[in-house]
Amino acid sequence: MIISRNFLVFLTILSCIKFYGQKKILHTNSITSRISIDGKSNEEAWKSAETAANFVMYQPDNGKPINENTKTEVKVLYDNDAVYIYAVMYDDQPEKIKKEITNRDIFGVSDYFSVFINGFNDGQQDFRFYVTAAGVQLDCVATEDYKDFSWDAIWDSRAVITDTGWNVEIKIPYAAIRFPSSNKQIWGINFLRNIERNIQVYSWNLIDTKIGAELTQNGLLEGIENIQTPTRLFFIPYASFYNQKDDNQSDNTFKGGLDIKYGINDAFTLDAILVPDFGQTKFDNAILNLEPFEQKLDENRPFFTEGTELFSKGNLFYSRRIGGFPTGEPTLEDNEEITDYPSTVDLLNAVKISGRTKKGLGIGFLNAVTEKTFATIKDTMSLEVRKEVIEPLANYNIVVLDQRFNQNSSVTFINTNTTRNGTFRDANVSGLLFDLNTKKNSYSLNGDFKYSTINTYEDYNGYKTALNFEKTSGKIRYEVSGKYISEDYDVNDLGLIYYTNYHAAYGNISYRILNPTKFFNTFKIKQEANLEIQNTTAKTQEAYLKTTIEASSLNNTYYEFSILYSPHETYDFYEPREYGRYVYVPRRIYSYFGFEWNRNHAFTIDATANFAKYDEENRQTYGIYINPKYRFSNQFSLEYALEYSNRKNDRGFVGYDINGIVFAERNREILSNVVTGKFALTNKMALNLDARYYWSYADNHDFFTLQEDGSLTPNPDYNLNKNRNFNSWNLDLSYSWWFAPGSEIIVLYRNYALEQTNQVEKNISNNLSDIFSSNLTNIISLSVRYYIDYNVIKNKF
């Protein structure tokens, strides 16, 4: 009996070794009968379809075969219009299946099934489709470095809970994916199953976590023959109504426009927006910004988030530049004042073309035009009003060529160009990037060279170059890199960069477990070292050693701890706000700790704490973040996020006097409160709440004059009030309904206000009273978007 048992184990090991060394192959059949997407396999065609089975664990215990009690079986069929997937997820405890209802593209606490499709089977890009046990759809375009969940395709699915687990049936029209015009198709394909209560993910074809690349590890789908790529032409007309009211005025606005998506060929898609409307995008998180740099804002406009993977190459594209803050400052005569200065520039239209050929060449083109924008200026004596251009008609353009080869390497060229009418500033930036990986994805060599040209009253050029080598597989991994940025390197017309004019060296080494131990599901420790030297002065701009530990326990609680030590003084070349000047920054030590409880619990919390101590008397910073969440049911959840920071004896720029640049020693507090709620009526209809209150102040108590050597000397004569007190309030309450595939109705109520003064108020209740007694703006809007598929219209007529 013992011999036979050991023999079976030996055979299992041998079969696993053979299985791990090759790709699985699934054969599919053509059908002519209709498939009803109801989550049931009643159709005769399913009975003869080949089954994909024998799933193995992807995370956390990579390579472990799936338990017989939770085995998974998948079948695939196709016809002239679509590919069909039917999956059976067995579960001996079906009452424990997690099935939270969320908005589209949000996983929540739910089991899910996913199919990865690569029509070109080139290991470069997957189209991924997810269905949760609650029937919620998620989809994304995935590359090795980026998963774009803002991409939304039109496809059909149905999930059904059964006595033995749950089933899902999916129909993916060919218009939703990309594949070559060949009589015989061979697609890369993989299937994933997530068992949320155990936080375990299984895949059909093994995804080996010892290998740095995931997309090259799909299995194969064979048998699809003689299908025609459909015409990919979609129209999305929209209409919007806004009612805006505050204490002084009220107005109504109607808007209408059209988005167009057109498949130029098998590989490339054109997206265009005519008369865009972004009035219902999420509000920006306003802050009291005392830093020398602008605040980086999140992009919430769908056109600039969906399908932009190619344009993000090289980090030269910051989409908020398009339609962002005006670049010009009006010239004021005596007795003149600005009565209206628009905070944004209107976008007239935008178009982008992107895709990748079957030989691995990715091509991206984006063009946007923004409107001429004026400031209104009033003469306080004559009361005459005039307008002055603060942003001319502007054209923004991006071209990307990205050649991938060997399924895991690439060479990229990118060019960004900003052209403004008249005598305003123009800019052009080009970049050449490369990313080379060994065949087994064990090592990587990557780098770039970028060159910028600015045309203004004084033209100047700059460049940036970097080289990076990494070991990307195994338990022990490491990275070394170096970079050089010249003084005049500037990408800020269509990109975003804060620090220039320095060279740097960086390195790290890390150790991780690849499979769970008796203490941890995951564990990683990483040691980093970084040194940055300013080019002009050869002074140290940044220097630190950093140790980070990340781990998750067997009960799936996540922990992270890091400590950063800056061993000697550095110099800040930006805080003085004047070219060639710098300020001394003392040595410091910074620590951070965070944890997140198992997210499957109805009540969960994640929290962090940080502390920094400077080698300067009584100068320190500490902060906390607490984020409790409670899931009342699968439909209803609430979460609250509290973030607090206290900076004692912080030092920063405040202005000028006859002695030069003035700094202040100040105490600062920052408090942010965010409440997020969701009530899902169905998996296509939900109420959502986003509310945020932010308060911050800067209380200056001592002033200094900046010296040429970067030191600060007392300036007791400076008596201007440079204190700041800042309050911001935003509330969004929305109802959304996906009433048809790709078609949505949104009703939004928005309420917001912003109040700032130089009188510090440290009582939180008084600040709340001030913001709610200020001039609140109220907006009620209704937006309807309808998705029209050319193929559906063609078939009807």
From TrEMBL:
GO biological process: carbohydrate catabolic process
Superkingdom of this protein's organism: Bacteria
UniProt cross-references to Gene3D superfamilies, sorted A to Z: 2.60.40.1190
Pfam families linked to this entry: CBM9_1, DUF5916
GO molecular function: carbohydrate binding; hydrolase activity, hydrolyzing O-glycosyl compounds
Domain Carbohydrate-binding: 37-194
Annotated DUF5916 domain residues: 229-797
Stated name of the protein: Carbohydrate binding protein with CBM9 domain
Organism: Flavobacterium aquicola
